[in-house]
Write a structure and sequence with these properties.
The strands form three sheets. A seven-stranded mixed sheet has the order 1-9-8-5-4-2-3, with helices on both faces. α5 links the parallel β4 and β5. The chain is α/β, with parallel strands linked by helices. α1 runs antiparallel to α7, α2 runs parallel beside α7 and α3 packs across α4. It is built from twelve helices and 13 strands. The chain folds into two domains: 229 residues, Aspartate Aminotransferase, domain 2; 130 residues, Aspartate Aminotransferase, domain 1 (Alpha-Beta Complex), CATH 3.90.1150. The two termini are 27 Å apart. The structure holds pyridoxal-5'-phosphate. Keywords: Pyridoxal phosphate. It comes from Candidatus Yanofskybacteria bacterium RIFCSPHIGHO2_01_FULL_39_8b. Belongs to the DegT/DnrJ/EryC1 family. Pfam families: DegT_DnrJ_EryC1. This is Polysaccharide biosynthesis protein.
């Protein structure tokens, strides 16, 4: 067991009581709580509709179907993301077309999108990575010019803002995830939000085995899935949502403390950068180790930190270099150089509500010593 895990959910009495109450009610699925969670979540993000699902991945899959993406289509997205944001494009038989990222925010570089567009391009799947928005103004302009849909992957960036506007309100739909390492959790779970009634209706049906719009018993109108959120998760989600602002504020404080202790070692480590248009909500704290020559050099640092009881992780491996992407699409090293450079030199540090200043000081001290002996 690591003394300092990479992530940890912030669970208190409220969540425990809420989960017990559901168990005592006997109403474990398709009860009232997922509906209440959806209503409150939509209100929080500022969309007309929210549809709870069993995971962020499930939500992304349904967003693709609802957008009408199908075999033969192409969708532009980021290679610097968790694999699910590209896989959901494959689920519907379409091709993920990657564009390289901006070296400040690690989000898709809008200046590289137009050259990736062709007649098959149907949508841009914008991933807001690590808690920070992508540069939405130019992305929206390009989408409008070429008549492309925007779908947002907000799985890592709940409540982040771009020019004061909440992410998840820019596209025709947006998807959130609640795995336990996220800013808020439902154990497993996700949420799709949209302002479009037509999208809501189809997603609401698809997640529940394709049932008819009025949800008549065993009347299945389309090929659907079991992507429902259960009531235990919804109860957890409601309890977590009520303290989301607090948890995000705590994450911001912890990130600032890491910055404070790391900044004096700026010849060794680059702290995360925030674009001036963005309000960052901190999914992870990812530093970039300077002068890293290879991925294996960075991985040695991760192993050495593990021996010191501090979990750190490579964040993130480049999607285009996973073997099945290489084999299927012919991607190779060198295709997206900025993604690859960040990917081989970045390191996520322990990051969760409850980390104290003394812990952060200790982790930074160990990290700096370790880097000094390997770089
Ligand atoms: C960017 C991104 N997209 C999609 C997902 C998938 O979410 P889930 O794990 O809930 O399926 C995640 C979760 O880690 C993510 O970080």
């Amino acid at each position: 067991m690591n003394k300092y895990p990479i992530a940890k959910p912030y669970i208190t009495k409220g969540e425990k009581q809420a989960v017990l109450d559901v168990l005592n009610s006997g109403n474990l699925s398709l009860g009232p709580l997922h509906k209440e969670f959806e209503r409150k979540f939509a209100e929080k993000i500022g969309t007309r509709y929210a549809c709870s699902v069993s995971s962020g991945t499930a939500g992304l899959h349904l967003a693709m179907i609802a957008a009408g993406i199908q075999s033969g289509d192409e969708v532009i997205t980021s290679p610097f993301s968790f694999i699910a944001s590209a896989n959901c494009i494959l689920y519907v038989g379409a091709k993920p077309v990657f564009v390289d990222i901006d070296p400040i925010t690690y989000n898709m570089d809008p200046g590289k999108i137009e050259q990736a567009i062709n007649k098959k391009t149907k949508a841009i799947l914008v991933v807001h990575i690590f808690g920070q928005s992508a540069d939405m103004s130019p992305i929206k302009k390009i989408a409008k010019k070429y008549n492309l849909k925007i779908i947002e992957d907000v799985c890592e960036s709940i409540c982040a803002k771009y020019r004061g506007k909440t992410v998840g309100t820019f596209g025709e739909s947006a998807v959130f995830a609640f795995y336990p390492n996220k800013q808020m959790t439902t154990a497993e779970g996700g949420m799709l939000v949209t302002d479009k009634k037509s999208i809501y209706k189809v997603v609401n049906s698809l997640r529940n085995q394709g049932r008819s719009d009025n949800m008549q018993w065993l009347d299945h109108q389309r090929l659907g899935y079991n992507y429902r959120m259960n009531e235990v998760s919804a109860a957890l989600g409601l309890a977590q949502l009520s303290k989301l602002d607090y948890m995000i504020a705590e994450r911001k404080k912890i990130a600032l403390l890491y910055n404070k202790y790391l900044e004096e070692y700026d010849s060794l480590v680059q702290v995360p950068q925030i674009h001036e248009l963005n309000d960052h909500t901190w999914f992870v704290y990812v530093a970039k180790i300077k002068n890293i020559k290879s991925e294996s050099q960075r991985n040695k640092i991760i192993l050495a930190m593990e021996k010191k009881n501090i979990a750190t992780k490579p964040y993130l491996p480049a999607i285009h270099l996973f073997s099945f992407y290489k084999n299927k699409f012919g991607y190779k090293t060198g295709d997206f150089p900025i993604t690859e450079e960040i990917s081989r030199s970045s390191i996520a540090l322990p990051f969760y509500v409850g980390l104290k200043e003394k812990d952060i000081k200790y982790i930074v001290e160990k990290l700096v010593n370790t880097i000094k002996s390997y770089v």
